[in-house]
Please model this.
Amino acid sequence: MTKILITAAGSYGDIAPYTGLGARLRTAGHEVALATHDSYAALVRAAGLEFRRLPADPRTHHSATTDPRGTADAEDTAAPDRPSPPGRNRDLMRQAAAFIKELGGGLADAAREDTGLLLLSATTAPLGHHLAEARGIPFLDLPLVPGAPTGDFAPVVSGGRSLGRWGNRTAGRLSLRIIDRLYADASRDLRTRLGLPPATPRTARRRAEATGRPVLHGFSEVLVPRPTDWRPGLDVVGNWWPWHAPDAQLPPVVEDFLAAGPPPVFIGFGSMAGGEGERLSTLVAAALRRAKLRGILQSGWAGLSAGHTSADSDLLTIGEVPHALLFPRMAAVVHHCGAGTAAAGVRAGVPTVPVPVTADQPFWAARLDSLGVATAPIPFKELSGDRAVARLSHALTQATTTPARRDHARTAAHRLTTEDAAAKVLKAVTRLTETEAPPN
Model:
């Protein structure tokens, strides 16, 4: 039995996959803690894991938060259809660096002396490497998105459009340098606190790369085949799914709504579009009526609600419901294309209407489109104006009436169900703890 600490920071999609993975490790006999923000304490404890607090909770911070993919949440996404004012990018970089700096101190507090293994998300890995070095703890990086440069595709934050093999690799290296800058202050402070000699994030990153350590990526090759030019040890193992109770069921109000008519369409934007609830709810309701479809609106950070529209028995508002239970009952799903939500739609075998907002979301939207399981993406910034209702309605009709798209979705879902990504992590954990465990 090993005492494992998983560290993850960001929004729901950055945290939830590690609850399912942690529960699997716990079932295998390990003692597992998950360090993350206060907002997700109940989620962590429900999975049977020990909760440890990380600061800089995006649900309570009044600033943009960022992870190494460049994902901006909360305040930054409140009005993504408006152009950024001069200096906005510099402001976001400063806010992101401040978030990361606060995170560094919390990470050191979360790792106790008896920690036997660190499992690190993309957001926490650049800091966790220093912690592992100082305390001699074995570690394993478990990112949810591809981060290493490759010629096969451009960095995920570039929008999904290829720049050619040379351009893709060059942009990938530039992306890593930007991440290094974001973590510079936090890394310096953390190394000082841990009694380590000075080392820049770039130096620490290159040391980790030089060792050839394994990195297990938590997405499926159904969506992103392993790049042909990645070094050995950079593996794509499949998705880790959010934990939910084995006997969990949809709420009665949802079951009643499903029984009252044909399969509806799911609409939700997760942690995106904060403050846009009334506008989006009105737009979505009009598009559904035009397409003659029923809809389930997941409130999320945007605050979607059927209450923002006139009374309509064909609309239902819900809070947090496991996608694994809800999505297979849908005619189609409309969402922002975060990595986890995109994969959940594929696993459910239903078509997607992608409405990417920012960061890695256009990348995943393009992947779904190329796989044939989604309509052409509608960038969120274009979901406004006189044509927005007609455009969304047309996409909904395409998603729900094109047999080939549903066939592609079912085929992809079948491939996804054969993967057991958690088992691959468990195997790697066993290997690491047997070969790198510190002496008693």
